[in-house]
Amino acid sequence: MLLTALTGASCSQDETPAGDGRTGVMAMTISTSRAETNGEYDPLQYQKVYIYNSEGGLLRKYAAKDDIPERLELLSGTYRVAVEAGEEVPADFSKRFYKGEETFTVKPGETTHAEVVCKIANTVVEVKFDASIVENLDPGYFVWIAGTDKFDEAEAESGAVPALKFTDEGTGYYTLPAGTTSLAWMFRGTHTSGKEVEMENTLTEVKAGGKYVFTFRYSPDLRGYIDALLIRVDTETEDKDDEIIFSPDPALLTEGFDNDEVQKYTSGEKKYRIMAFAELKKFTVSVGDDSYDLLTGTHEGISFTPTDKYNTELTLSDAFFAGLAGGDHAVTIHVEDANGGSNEISTTYRLQGLVPVTEKSYDLWANTVTLQVVDFTRSANVTFGLCGSDGQWKYLTGTSQGDDFISATFARQWQESTNANGHTVYTREAGTGVVATYGYEYKVTIDGTEKSGSFTAGAAQTIPNADMSGWSMTSGFAFPNAEGGAFWSSGNNTMTKTLCTSTDVKFGKAAPAAKLTSTNMLVLAAGNLFTGTFAYKSFTGTVQFGQPYDFTVRPSALKVKYHAKVGTVDKVRTSGDICPYIKKGDPDMARIFVAIVDWNAPHQVVSAMTTTKGAWDPEKGIDNVSEGKILGYGSLWITQSTEGDDMQDAELDIVWYDHETRPSGGGYSLVISCACNAYGDYFTGCSTNVMYVDDFEWVY
Fold first, then answer.
1. What is the DSSP letter of 191?
2. Assessment of whether the complete model's pTM goes beyond 0.85
3. CATH class of the region 472-699
4. Stretch 382-400: mean pLDDT, rounded?
């Protein structure tokens, strides 16, 4: 036992202290609970002593062993002595830390002997390597043990967590951070057969002052296993044993080629070696959508043969690759063994020939498709052909990309014109490029040899609640949104509650439509439906036009069903911002328009009794609002009532100011507006107009 005395060695309880009869002498012996020493480190060389009175006040502090006096005369009373010995570091193979305290009473004229036993405050870890480890693993194995919930080698190496690397048997001392009650460990080594062994686990409910002995061994009865036998030595609990068994994962190795490189395949065999220490329970080869189970049958071009107890050779031959088209193919080999181990390897094989068109080949916003062939000589004369949506073949000469691929891109062509307001707009030239939902044929001629294929260019995008089937209540009013949705809005408010309502008059119960009804409220309240939000206060309505919409496919038109009743203008604003386009007695117009925009915020229109701020029209140019650009639009002016009771189909052809820019992700990109009165934002129009709308959909 390591000892140190606060008083000189000659002090004893029989000595009579100097003083006035109200004092006594404290003689103190300090020891550690275990005589753990490596012959070089003595924790009692690093000790601190604190003496407190009965009220907890600090009377004395000694920060070094040499500072402690030989005699300590104190007034009679009760004292608490707290001692720290050693050094408190995160983790170390020799430095350790002890703490202890006791309470004593000093009597007048007497010497009181105070014995303080310091218990270790570290979590102690001992690592042992069984002889079977030395016999079955190559030199260089090691185990990391760290004070953390999950092992991270980078954290251990950097010292971010208390951690020690045991390359040999030994004992380590840990000061675990507050709240940490786990030891995470990772063992790494190489089996004599060449298989890398790496495994990790976590021990929970770890306590300071406890000792944990890990013994690692190679299990001869379960060949290929490593056992970690854990013995917990805890001074406050009974000893416990816990055994953790784990197995190396199978290894997958290529034979004669570098798996990190693309394999240009023309003919021959490709071989792999599978090394496993337990019986294989799953063994598959996958390419594209096809997966072959090698344990349940034979497959053309795939064979495997055990070469010894641990190794199996897999061969892929010409018959396997013959079923693959030109281009790059990821061939994945996956294995699982009886011990729960698994592994897989994926090799990219490149084959010559026509590359099939996939979703990666086309861009349905840019309306382009790239056709490709693989030619290892890079010198073939290649001509590509594409049969467009107009049924006509178009041809392009292939261009080498410098990486075995020869390609040509078929793009949309544009026709330029001028709209009614004098702005340049563009429309797609029929039959050029590719558009969503259409089927296409393509072919390639390589040095006189023709190959062909076909594809359908992607699916259509949908518009939320486009069929007006979902309705929900917001602030006491019905809106055409499913519960929780907020895509559509209208001008419904406390004064006018029927500007937009659900109806089944036109379609029957199973297919409701939106009914827009204008109202005379001293001023005109136009029936309306739009994408955005609306707020009403003090006879002032504020519309925020626009909703985010992730365009992945460029539409050519917006299709909608409608039925309209339009009359003569009977309500106009007579002062302030008077409508400059129509006047009382003129034929009124309803309007539906769509605008594809690239805005950083919704566009605001505020209509009050005598003022209108922010009125806009997508036909008036790309930059006629401040929030960003109007990329394209389609518009339907309804100048007369619909005949009969049936809904009419209409297609709003979209023309483009900018046919290159793609709406920014996360911004406001779509406006759809339906209004019984085209100039309702000026409180001007026919107060008896009614319009039904339903079934919005994109046309490509």
1. B
2. no
3. mainly beta
4. 93
Which CATH class, in words, describes the domain spanning 3-120?
A: mainly beta
pLDDT above 60 (res 240): no
Domain 257-350: CATH superfamily is Immunoglobulins (2.60.40.10)
Q: Are strands 263-265 and 342-351 parallel, antiparallel or unpaired?
A: parallel
Phi, psi of 155 (to 5 degrees): -65, -40
Contact criterion met (CB below 8 Å) for 534 and 542:
yes
675, two tokens:
């209004």
pLDDT on residue 31: 65
- Every domain range in the chain assigned CATH 2.60.40.10: 257-350, 353-456
Q: State the Cα–Cα distance between residues 248 and 135, nearest whole angstrom.
A: 17
Least confident of 222-231, 614-623, 682-691: 222-231
Distance CA 671, CA 617 (A): 11
pLDDT band at 226 (very low <50, low <70, confident <90, very high): low
Contacts (Cβ under 8 Å, ≥6 apart) of 404: 264, 350, 374, 375, 376, 378
Most confident listed range (3-7, 607-611, 642-646)? 607-611
Using CA atoms, how far apart are residues 513 and 237, in angstroms rounded to an integer? 74
CATH class of 353-456: mainly beta
Is residue 156 a contact partner of residue 144, using CB atoms and an 8 Å limit? Answer: yes
User: Which of these, 688, 635, 690, 633, lies nearest to 659 by C-alpha position?
Assistant: 633
Query: What count of other Cβ atoms lies within 10 Å of the Cβ of residue 87?
Result: 16
The residue type of 78 is: T
pLDDT (mean) for 190-210: 84
How would you write 156-184 as a 3-class SS string?
HHHCCCCEEEECCCEEEEECCCCCCCCEE
